[in-house]
Amino acid sequence: MIFVTKADGEVTYVSPEWCAFTGQPASAAIEHGWLDSVHPDDRETAANFLRCAAEKQSEYSFRHRLRRADGSYAWVAGGAVPSFGPPDHTFLGYLGSLTEIGPSGSEPMTAYGSIGRFVPPPTHPATAPGSTLERVADHLLIAHGLIEQDHAKEMLPVLREALFTAGRLLARSMTAPAAKDRVH
């Protein structure tokens, strides 16, 4: 599930996978509406952590329970990479992803977040494929997480530019006339 945020942390885009998984329409998920799909015991942790990450303008990873469309909960892992643009390398927001990691919300885990490198977990087999652009964004996020493991840091500026472009195009797609249940 792909998402895009503004610098203040408000969500501007959620992929159709979010809507299918949670049953929440994209129009309800924007801004901070996505928190309604987070387990009540994890909401405050998620909101506070993400506010802190946005203040630091840093990559992050987090884990929490997310309500499925059928009302049950599943553990998801996610994270995001910041986007910067002109003028003066201004922080614009995040491009990130979420992946189901646990079959139910009852496993003995806790919600948490960490500031630093974001390495996306493998895509869950039950996650339906998204648009080509969403799949590209997902692969770019995975590549970004793997770069340091291969000691190829000189590729980071090009990869970050590609992530910025993918996030911009995803956010723009929500304003396209064909986007029925997406709002930007």
Which helices and strands appear, and what pairs or packs with what?
Blueprint lengths: L1 E5 L4 E4 L1 H7 L3 H4 L10 H17 L3 E8 L5 E13 L4 E13 L9 E4 L16 H15 L9 H18 L11
Antiparallel strand pairs: 1-2, 1-5, 3-4, 3-6, 4-5
Helix pairs in contact: 4-5
What does this structure look like?
This protein has 184 residues and is α+β, with helices and mostly antiparallel strands. The chain has a single domain (2-173), classed as PAS domain (Beta-Lactamase). Helix content is 33%, strand content 26%. It has helices spanning 16-22, 26-29, 40-56, 132-146, 156-173; strands at 2-6, 11-14, 60-67, 73-85, 90-102, 112-115. Strands 2-1-5-4-3-6 form a six-stranded antiparallel beta sheet, sandwiched between helices. Strand 3 and strand 4 (73-85) form a beta hairpin.
Total count of strands: 6
- Give the overall shape: globular
Which value, in Å, is the CA radius of gyration? 15 Å
Order of helices and strands: EEHHHEEEEHH
Trace the largest sheet across and list its strands.
2-1-5-4-3-6
In CATH, the topology is named: Beta-Lactamase
Architecture, CATH level 2?
Answer: 2-Layer Sandwich
Distance between the termini: 17 Å
Number of spatially distinct domains: 1
What is the structural class? alpha+beta
- Proportion of strand residues: 25-35%
Instruction: Indicate the mean pLDDT.
Output: 78
- Percent helix range: 25-40%
Q: Which residues sit in consecutive blocks of at least 5 with pLDDT less than 50?
A: 177-184
The CATH homologous superfamily name equals PAS domain
How many helical stretches?
5
Q: Can you summarize the main beta sheet?
A: 6 strands, antiparallel
